[in-house]
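Instructor's aside before we start: the two examples that follow are unrelated to each other. I chose them only because their records fit on one page, so don't look for a connection. First example below.
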Amino acid sequence: MAACRNIVIFGATGMTGLATLAQALQAGYQVTVLVRDPARLPPEHRPARVVVGDVLNPPDVDKAIQGQDAVIIILGTRNDLSPTTMMSEGTRNIVAAMKAHGIRKVVVCLSAFLMWDLKKVPPKLLPVTEDHIRMHQILQESGLDCVSVMPPHIADDQPLTGDYTVTVNTSGGARVISKHDLGHFFLKCLTTSEYDGQSVYLSRNYPKV
C-alpha cells in the first residue's frame, strides 16, 4: 500500500491520543489534530497543523481531513460514562469528510466489550459501549479500509514495548495493553493492509508495577 505520511488524529488530547501523537511525531509523520482546546497539547509534542474546532461540526472535520493520507480516531468521553452519541456522530462526520476527499484508510479505537455478549458488559459502561457499537456500524457500512482496534483495559502506567499479542476477531490473552503499545499498533496499521476490515484485540502481560 502507498505510504501514509500525512495523518490526522481525532482525540489527540486524551490519554491514548497524546501517547499516539508523541510516537507519530517521533516517527516523522506530518500530523494534523482537531482539538477544542489547543492548550491541552504539550509544548514538546507540537503537531504540524492544529485545527481548533469540534468533531461534531462537519466543517471543522472537513478542514482537518483535507490533504491527509489516513485517519486515526481515538474519540472518548474521558471519565463521563453517561449516555452519549458524541463518538458515533463524530465518526459519521469523519466518514463523510473522508469520502469527500477520497481518503480510504482509517484506524479506530473502540473497546474489547464489542467482542463480548452485551449482557456481560458492566452496566455503568453500557452507555459508552453502545456508542462504540454505533461507531463500529458506521465504519463497517462505510466501505472504507478500516481497522477496528478493540483494546482491553488501557494502562497509563506501563511502558512502550512494541511487543504485544495481536488477535483478530476474538479476544484472548491478557486483559491489558499500555497506552504506548496501543499507539504503536495504530501507527503500525498505517504501514500495512493486513488488518483492514478486521476487528483486532491487543494484549500483553506487563510486569507488576
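Example two begins here.
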Amino acid sequence: MRFTIVFAGLLGVLLVPAFADYNINISDNNNSGGSGQQSVSVNNEHNVANVDNNNGWDSWHTLWDYGTGFAAIRVFHKKACIVHRMNKDALPSLQALDAMVKEKKLQGEGPRGPPPKGLMYSINPNKVNNLEQFGKSIVGMCKGVPTYMAEEVQGASLFFYSGKCFSVNVLWIVNISLCGGTAEN
C-alpha cells in the first residue's frame, strides 16, 4: 500500500510539468506600459499549439493545428475567427516551439532579439460555412463565432497596402498581419 502511494506521488510530481502551460511575459519594461502576457500550451498528443494573448481589449487567441496544417486566430474585440493555412517555413515545428518555451528561450527576448518573421494575409469577406474542413480543434475554438478564411499574400509589404490591417505578434517568432474584410470592422 505504501509503495502505491509513493509511486502515485512520484508520478504526479513528474507529470505536472508535462501538462503545464507556459507564460511568456511580452511586455517591454516589466509590464509598465507594456502589452500584456502570452500563455503557450503545446499538446504533442494532438499536434496542436495554443497561444493566448491577454491584453485587455486587444486580446486574441491563436491555435496552430500541425495535424491539419491550418491555424486560426480568434480576435476578441472583432468577435471573429480568421482561419489560414500554416506557413511551415515561417513557423517553428511543434517540437521546436515546445523546446523554446520549456527552455524559456523566448522569455525577455523582445525587441533585443532577432526580428520576427512577417506574414501578411488577406481576409476573404465571405463567412466560412463549414468549419469541419479545418479539424476538431479549430471547430472547438471558432464554433458560434463568425469565421473567415484568409490567404497569405506572398512578398507583400504593409507599406504598400492601402487597407486596414490588424497585427498579431506571436511570441517574437512571427508577426501576422490580417488585412481587409473584418480587419476594418
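The mean pLDDT is 76.
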